[in-house]
Amino acid sequence: METIILQKEENIAVLTISRPKALNALNTKVLKELDGAIDEIENDNEIYALVITGDGEKAFVAGADIAEMKDMNPKEARNFSILGNKVFRRIESLRIPTIAAVNGYALGGGCELAMACDIRIASETAKFGQPEVGLGITPGFGGTQRLSRIVGKSKAKELIFTGDVIDANEALRIGLVNKVVKKEELIDEAKKLANKISQNAPIAVGLAKAAIDRGYQADIDTAIMYEAEVFSQCFATEDQKDGMTAFTEKRKVEKFKN
Length: 258
Ligand code: CAA
Known about the structure:
Layout: E1 4-9, E2 12-17, H1 28-42, E3 49-54, E4 59-61, H2 66-69, H3 74-93, E5 98-102, E6 105-107, H4 109-116, E7 119-123, E8 127-129, H5 143-151, H6 153-162, E9 165-167, H7 168-173, E10 179-181, H8 186-198, H9 202-216, H10 220-234, H11 238-248
Parallel strand pairs: 2-3, 3-5, 4-6, 5-7, 6-8, 7-10
Antiparallel strand pairs: 1-2, 8-9
Helix pairs in contact: 1-3, 3-4, 4-5, 5-6, 9-10
The structure holds acetoacetyl-coenzyme A.
């Protein structure tokens, strides 16, 4: 892979989008390599949480590649959108939790990539926006759908219609990010959170993620039945036996299995 760096550290992985000359803009090659990296992550049972970040000081991802899109016809644009959406949906649907460590510009496709993650931590220098209408297009990798789900329909419309770029503190205020930290602390903070999550029972964490995400799309009666389903599935795992036995024996589980 030339544009993606995937590093494993014990039970977490850090995926870096690396195309610094174009501020990590997402072209077809990056999207395909990202797709390949997701295969690797999916097939590795030792990875319990994933951090996604961008290479360099300036950008997380400055969007989909404008130079590549410039001469696209509608059919090519549709295929490009379908590819980006497929890859981002795969990230969103990973069984493990994902944390976007937003180190700079997260515009257009970059904001959309961050929103496909479960949790977003931003550096003080991060900037967010969906500036597509200024280029004569709409967001194309999920922005019209995920932004409204995260910050509400009205704020999403304001941001998408104006193309305004907001700073990290405003992103925190509207609930687009979970936390803002100093630039030099960003990766450590994201890894710390990933490591903290990875101390818990991985099957239970994955099932909780699935229950939140599937339940969010459903009516409450369907959603709570889905919760009962995943809750019961936990009782078929060794982790449940280990976790509850350890509690009754007044000790902590050293390491949950997967
Ligand atoms: N696509 C392709 N190249 C990009 C890019 C992008 N989205 N963003 C930046 N670059 C390139 C620039 O062309 C430039 O390349 P050269 O050095 O070869 O000229 C290099 O990265 C550095 O960028 P700038 O010189 O522009 O850096 P700056 O500090 O002056 O500005 C910026 C930084 C404000 C992020 C500016 O680069 C910018 O506005 N980028 C585009 C942001 C944007 O509109 N993103 C949305 C894209 S559309 C989209 O994402 C659709 C979708 O949903 C699928």
